């Protein structure tokens, strides 16, 4: 007959040390996550600023093609008037 395996004995000091190591690891992870969240807030602010600047540039740019079309129409009208005025 074989004797039953007594199993693994973990002392309370070993268990306490493992729990302390785990707590330290969780603390380091929390610090890293806080840093990442702060960086994400900065990135969101930058994106918002870029969106605002792009929208401003787009609004300021729309008159240029309109002015070009109006100048072309005015030139064509002037040419037609001078052609038919003779």
Q: State the end-to-end distance.
A: 128 Å
Content of β-strand: under 5%
Number of strands: 0
Q: Largest sheet at a glance?
A: none
Mean pLDDT: 89
Shape: rod-shaped
The number of helices is 2
Question: What would you note in describing this structure?
Answer:
- The chain crosses the membrane at residues 62-85.
- Keywords: Membrane, Transmembrane, Transmembrane helix.
- The protein is mainly α and 86 residues long.
- It contains 2 helices and no strands.
- The mean pLDDT is 89.
Q: How does the SSE layout of this entry go?
A:
Elements: H1 12-61, H2 63-85
Q: Characteristics of this structure?
A:
rod-shaped, membrane, transmembrane helix, mainly alpha, 86 residues, transmembrane
What's this, in brief?
By secondary structure, the chain is mainly α. It contains two helices and no strands.
């Amino acid at each position: 007959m074989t004797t039953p395996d007594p199993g693994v004995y973990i002392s309370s000091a070993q268990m306490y040390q493992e729990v302390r190591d785990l707590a330290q690891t969780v603390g380091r992870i929390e610090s890293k996550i806080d840093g990442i969240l702060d960086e994400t807030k900065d990135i969101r602010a930058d994106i918002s600023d870029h969106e605002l600047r792009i929208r401003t540039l787009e609004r300021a740019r729309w008159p240029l093609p309109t002015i070009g079309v109006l100048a072309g129409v005015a030139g064509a009208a002037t040419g037609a008037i001078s052609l038919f005025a003779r």
